[in-house]
Sequence to fold (627 residues):
Amino acid sequence: VYLLKAILADAPCIRQARPLSLVRVPRMPCSGVQQPSLVAPVAEGGDVEVLKRSQSDTWQVRTLASLRAESKQDLDADGIASVAPSALLAEQTGRKGVGILVASAPSHEVDRAQQPQPLLELGGVSIVSHALWQLNSAHFALVIVVVGFKGDQVQQQLVAHIKSHPSVFEGLRLKFVDLGKGWRGGRVASLAACIPCVEELVGAPESIVVVGADHIFDASLLQEAASLDLGGDGDEACVLVEFDLEGMRGLPATTVYCATRPLHGADRVYSIGPDLETYSGLEAGLIVFTPATLGKLGDQGRGAVRVASFLSEVAQRGTLRMLKTAGRTWFSVETEESAEFTSNGLRRCGQEYVLADGRKVHLVGLPRKLETSPSDGGEWAEFSVEKWRSAVYTAKSFFQELFVDTTDFIGRLCDEVGGRGEEGPLLVEVGCGTGEALLPLMDRARYTVGMDFNPHFVEFCRQNVPKEHQDSVRHIIGDAQELATLLNNELPPAWVAGSRPKIVICVGNTIGIMPKEVRKNVYQQMKNLAGRDGYMVIVYWNGNRFGDAVQHFYHKNPQLCGPFKGECIDLDTCTLTTPSGYCTHWTKPEEARLIFEKEVDVEVTCLLEKGNGVLVAGRMHGNREQM
Fold:
């Protein structure tokens, strides 16, 4: 039986800022087909009347107070349940899971004017309806929906969504908590408002799955979250963690990062927050609490605490569990860019669904997360900009000092041969990636060129050259084994003039991931281009720090190299070869000198071992003094 319009029209509680309860509207046969039960919002202590069927199948009017006054036995005998504990709901419906759907945000970055965040449409369906659809697909027994700004519209949207194809929602119970049209509080305050409802409905051993109306999750993720027994293992909370950062688009400034220690605990989050310098993954917006932990969060919600700060305390106690996405679909709709990506994702990998009224919509449902790369990290040309920049950003704390040392080392060489002046050098980076190394050096050379085999990287660099350097910086696609020919074909004659000194660099251990034969050819190309008046510069990652890097960089950066085990590590040769095809070699200072002097046949003018790096400059044998 559908929700009666009279209840919605006459209930003052829906138009006022008052908490809502619910009762189940009973099923009635219609044309021989059993229709699903729906949930009617009823004012807490209000005068709204609820229809209830008697034993003789005639309708009689009952108030909420009268329903509460009836014994549980009477209700069970009649086959009608008022708001029951979640365990009883699960027993009656065969469903399992208690969710809190936070749909109280006042606005969205995409539409800051009048549109409530939950009503932003993706694929023809509001995001709050997407979220509810997925909770229903995961067979949740009870969903508590927290609404605020324009909460009546959000409720009506959800009811309409259920009515558009009622058989899909058979057995789902909803409870609305309305915080009022003027609500401007945050997520913690919204959750705190649910505490009385949770205390009434949810048993202590159960877990509560919290999702926001700006996130859409694969049903299997929600099912796994609902089945967690946190209390039984002494845990307080669990967060969903995404380790594959390639698919991330439009991350907001409020993104929360997670640090794990896979060698110590495969299911633990040891640190969590928005400002972690080194992290393993992202908190994906799905959190599971025990009722007791949610109560503690509610107590703190009276202040200015954020969920991430609260979870950080839980992580420090060692009681924050981790649930991995494991490639399953989820979308975040928090910024304009991420909303657009989600819309495209729903059209591309979502499931087209025809509603009862004939409308075609897109729902996430069945498809899994798109393949990131056939090689999962091994093929350089397949790396996306997001994947590589995520790796660079993740590594910033591990390599920050080396980044500064590299800039200073190369900058001094540029200054030596003319700097920014008319006769200054052409600075060429082999394997420029997304341009991090060249950016601070653009003021140190007359002309700057970055080249890379990956067209995505080159296009990104071209779009991000500072305006003041547009005339003196180029980025080109090509093979470093044909470096001289590539530059002569792509650059103006003045840039590659024989009289102009060339400083040719390869930094960030890029040389270390090249196949042996390719590396040999690239060395020779770099040497010949630098000649006797310029410099060939290689920055290796320091083999004396290889063991530390395996634990604190590669294990924390799986999107770069792919997952690996101990047999992939060769400590004697300082080499890591992962199943994805990624291979890297770290070089010790003495090995670096031998490479320059014996393999490449150049004079080493300067060699520095600086923390995680070995910085080497050389040129064809000549008369200049060493630095």
Observations:
- The longest strand covers residues 281-289.
